[in-house]
Amino acid sequence: MSHDAPTPTIHGLMAEFENPKALVHAAEKARLAGYKHMDAYTPIPVEELDEALGLRRTRLPILVFLGGVFGGFAGFGLEYWTQVIAYPMNIGARPYNSWPQFIPVTFEMTVLGSALTAFIGMWALNKLPQPYHPVFNVPEFARASTDRFFLCIEATDPRFDVGGTKQFLEGLKPVGVSEVAP
Amino acid sequence: MADHQHPQSRMNAQAEKQLLARTPEVIAPGHTFETVTETISHVVMSKRTPLGWFLGFGIAFLLLMILNLTIGNLLMTGIGIWGNNIPVGWAFDIINFVWWIGIGHAGTLISAILLLFRQQWRTSINRFAEAMTLFAVACAAMFPLLHTGRPWLAIYWLFPYPNVMGLWPQFRSPLIWDVFAVSTYGTVSALFWFTGLVPDMATLRDRAKSRAAQTIYGMLSLGWRGSAKHWQRYETAYLLLAGISTPLVLSVHSVVSFDFAVSVLPGWHATIFPPYFVAGAIYSGFAMVMTLAIPLRKFYGLEDFITMRHIHNMTKVMLATGMIVAYGYANEAFFSWFSGNPYEAFMMTNRMTGPYAFFYWSLIAINAAMIQLFWFRSVRDNIPLLFVLSLFVNVGMWLERFIIIVTSLHRDFLPSSWDMYAPTRWDFGMFAGTIGLFLALFFLFIRFLPAIAIFEMRTLVEEETGELERPGMV
């Protein structure tokens, strides 16, 4: 898309399907037809869509691992610093750095660090919370959270063209195709 | 070869088929996405609140007021209103703390461990079991916090923060490990629960009729739109949270058991404690899930989703974990004899024949003898009986903590310091009050939030009915 291109008057075109199978087939056909800027909306997670839409694997697991490592070091570091450096106290003649007794807190902090990263990371990568999104302008979309499956090809796609894309989507035998207001 | 089967294996196949027919379904047949969504969300979206709800919530609310009264008196007067005193310095506050925390464990087991083991039957009970965990942790946390007497000061005894005195908590103490374990557990359970709720909040947002409901559920749904890109990360995060929660839940009750096991007191200083506490936690937690699930499915007509399969499986989990607990009792008794330590031996004799013997034998009668009933299919099919038995298990596990804590403390090494312990009315008030808090929160939960994970039920329907093909077939 070049810089002087006019702002698209629509967000895209959305096709509605009755079941996940039809949607997965449609998504794959769209990908093979060369569409790239598209997304599918489903009331249940459909793993097969990752491949059909050509989604990349998420980098969430590596972030969670790093979060866990950070939490663990922070936990042990806190214990070491408070018990050895900041306020060393002789408790039952145990060494200041009595590391075996520091393990439970280190473990819990590892868990906390990774869980917080999984939670915050997932919502942040998904760019949620997001109060407004154009797909909600389609009245039929209310059923996307119950029993309908949607494929939306976005107007930003280089191959997008209202007439042609509409014809393409109608060829996939959807329940209906609607324009999505921006 | 293929069509000429060995008679033996044919018979096995037939027996297997018969056995499968005897196993009830995870979800009643004939359900579609729309029907599961409607049935579950109807409980929340319906304008009419059933009279029984008001009755139940009213009773819970009264108990909750007792909690307020007790806490008020406790803060004004001090912890002297409780019955615990030297030598029994820990009594109801730690008994109830361990009891509540243990109950919470079943929620995490169902939502996390059974998810990793791909146990489909967890789907219809995980949401309210997780809610149960959160509320139980809230009740549990109240006891040690109020046992400090001045909870507004407790923060620097419990949490490491740079205070003006330059003091830090003592990290070699299991009590501090407990603070970290329980607060991490509460936090992670809340994150897990909220993550699971978001797609259902979107469903409720889209089905809500009133503006207020649309706004509130809309905000809670974070703008969830079911995008495939979002689902991919969502499923990854959910699985990771389950994987993280699994060692967490095992660690929490192990750490709770360290409160006892790390001390040198006879009856506490035992290496069996961590696994035996974890098994006991799951056992009591499943009993509480059962206590809540039986009325829930009955009054809200959710028998199609919480089927006999769930009831059977929960009973079997209780049987298995209850047997581990019973093994723990046997092990304790054996160890006190085999150790040859006179204090250990006395502790066990005192438990069995001392002033609290009645409670010890009640505990054995429930947790070792009564649970043998769960072996029988006729018992597993009898719902009213199971409800009563699950209440007994809750009592039994409470008695276990009473016995472990009170009988070990009230007669220790020095006969001159022996004494008896009896709870006061404020002890009972506080305990009844937390039951009120727990039930009140639970009643609010089933009225305002979907008690069964709707999107996971839809996934279950899809798995039962549709077959997805792998891409690359076009």
Brief digest:
The complex is a heterodimer of chains A (182) and B (474). With 182 residues, chain A is α+β, with helices and mostly antiparallel strands. Chain A is built from five helices and four strands.
Secondary-structure topology with pairs:
The complex is a heterodimer of chains A (182) and B (474).
Chain A: E1 12-17, H1 20-32, E2 38-41, H2 48-52, H3 60-86, H4 103-125, E3 149-154, H5 162-170, E4 176-180
Helix pairs in contact in A: 3-4
Chain B: H1 7-22, H2 33-45, H3 51-77, H4 92-116, H5 123-147, H6 151-158, H7 174-207, H8 211-220, H9 228-261, H10 273-299, H11 308-338, H12 342-353, H13 357-369, H14 377-381, H15 383-410, H16 425-448, H17 454-465
Helix pairs in contact in B: 2-17, 3-16, 4-5, 4-9, 4-10, 4-15, 5-7, 5-16, 7-8, 7-9, 9-10, 10-11, 10-15, 11-12, 12-13, 13-15
Q: How does this model look, in words?
A:
The complex is a heterodimer of chains A (182) and B (474). Chain A has helices at residues 20-32, 48-52, 60-86, 103-125, 162-170; strands at 12-17, 38-41, 149-154, 176-180. Chain A starts with 11 loop residues before the first strand and ends with a strand. By secondary structure, chain A is of the alpha+beta class. In chain A, helix 3 (60-86) packs antiparallel against helix 4. Chain A folds into 2 domains: 12-57 and 132-180, no CATH class; 60-125, no CATH class. Chain A is 42% helix and 12% strand. Chain A has a 4-stranded antiparallel sheet with strand order 2-3-1-4, covered by helices on one side. The model of chain A has no long low-confidence stretch (mean pLDDT 91). Chain B has helices spanning 7-22, 33-45, 51-77, 92-116, 123-147, 151-158, 174-207, 211-220, 228-261, 273-299, 308-338, 342-353, 357-369, 377-381, 383-410, 425-448, 454-465. Chain B has one domain: Formate dehydrogenase/DMSO reductase domain (Formate dehydrogenase/DMSO reductase fold), CATH 1.20.1630. With 474 residues, chain B is mainly alpha-helical. The radius of gyration of chain B is 24 Å and the shape is globular. The chains are: A alpha+beta (182), B mainly alpha (474). The interface between A and B is large, with 76 and 68 residues.
